[in-house]
Amino acid sequence: MMSQKGGALFGYTDLYGGYSGGQAQYVRVPYADVSPRIVPEHLSDEQALFLTDIFPTGWSAIDWAQLKGGEVVAIFGSGPVGLMAQKAAWINGASRVIAIDPLDYRLEKAKAVNNVDILNPHKVDVVAAIREMTGGRGADVCVDAVGFEPERSFMDKVKATINFEKGSIKVLEMCFEAVRRMGTVSIMGVYGSPYDNFPLFRIFDKGITIKQGQAPVLNYIDKLIGLVDEGKVVLDDIITHTIPLEDAARGYKIFDEKEDDCVKVVLKP
Fold it and tell me: Which residue in 43, 47, 188, 189 is deepest, having the highest Cβ count within 10 Å?
């Protein structure tokens, strides 16, 4: 939903109170006594828009890892949330940020807007590459910004069907392999079912800290508005398509089917 200059800036989707239909010219906002924020007059809609969801989500993944400065952060997934996590990693003191994605156009966008190292799992062994890049230790922090819908082989799909699972935990398993001993894995990708053969042994053996969940946007929103307002972070550089609200179905289609190098669609009322 686009903000109005000088108007309200709304928080995460849960703050709509479970009502559907938020992508509209107008929306009824439950809990409006706590969730809206004033958009500074000089910010454009596009500058403020991602403060409502994906930037706080990406920020959460990094904040949960409690960077002290100098860490190597590997972020699996260079969709909108992954791109925002990359920005957050730099702001919070990472010494190196590695973006992992199977789509070259997403990696190119990540490199262009966030100055990250890039790895394509179709071209390299990602875990081996991360270990090589970190002197054999592994990344200090791995972020799963993909969730249960990664690219999957036929056998992955068969296994999920047999086990009554939704999607796959293959990206999460890569995070557990790529992170260093006593490192942190932040999970922002959504998972919707139990999973067979969950790698608890590796988590235990490596002493991995896991943080996960939906982003607590109201915990971060005021700080993040300040970062944008002060010019310390640019958010609208990830936009690839701007289309009218009435063409929303087409926007979903090109994003879902990965057409026209689509990374992020903005709907204009």
Answer: 188
